[in-house]
Structures are given as structure tokens and as C-alpha cells.
């Protein structure tokens, strides 16, 4: 949930974006499968490390996805 209200667009950091997408996907499952696909693309496009500093609540999901990509 946004913590600030502004007339200007608020740009998320890559860490916050990935954390938000994983949180939404974990909470809603198949309905939000595009969020999981977006995380896959973000990991690949940015060559992110396995230990990327995502929110602790989604860290296991991030690592599972990363591991699948790097088999």
C-alpha cells in the first residue's frame, strides 16, 4: 500500500517493485501469475543475484524463482 499521496508519480525502486510483485503473486496466486512472470523477466534483464535484498516476507519465493532460472 502506498504510504504517501502525491500529485507526482512515485517511482518504485527495483527492490520495492520485485517485493510488491512477489507479495501480490503469493497472496493471490494464479490470478496474479503475470506478477511472477514479471519477476522472472526482471531477474533476467537485470542479472540480479540470488541474494538480492527483497523484503524478508518474499525472500524464499524470490530464491525459488532464482534457483529455477539458474538450474
- Overall 3D form: globular
Largest sheet: none
Question: Structural class, judged by helices and strands?
Answer: mainly alpha
Order of helices and strands: HHH
Distance between the amino and carboxyl termini: 34 Å
Mean pLDDT: 93
Q: How would you describe the oligomerization state of the chains in this entry?
A: single chain
Give a verbal description of the structure:
This protein is mostly helical. It has a domain at 12-20 and 50-71. It is 56% helix and 0% strand. α1 packs antiparallel against α2 (33-46) and α2 packs across α3 (59-69).
Q: Which labels suit this protein?
A:
71 residues; 3 helices
Q: How would you summarize the topology of this molecule?
A:
Elements: H1 14-28, H2 33-46, H3 59-69
Helix pairs in contact: 1-2, 2-3
Quick structural gist:
The chain has 71 residues and is mainly α. It is 56% helix and 0% strand. The termini are far apart.
Amino acid at each position: 500500500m502506498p504510504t504517501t499521496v502525491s500529485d507526482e508519480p512515485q517511482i518504485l525502486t527495483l527492490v520495492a517493485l520485485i517485493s510488491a510483485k512477489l507479495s501480490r503473486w503469493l497472496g493471490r496466486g494464479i490470478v496474479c501469475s503475470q506478477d511472477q512472470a514479471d519477476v522472472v523477466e526482471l531477474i533476467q534483464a537485470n542479472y540480479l543475484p540470488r541474494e538480492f535484498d527483497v523484503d524478508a516476507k518474499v525472500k524464499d519465493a524470490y530464491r525459488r524463482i532464482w534457483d529455477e532460472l539458474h538450474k
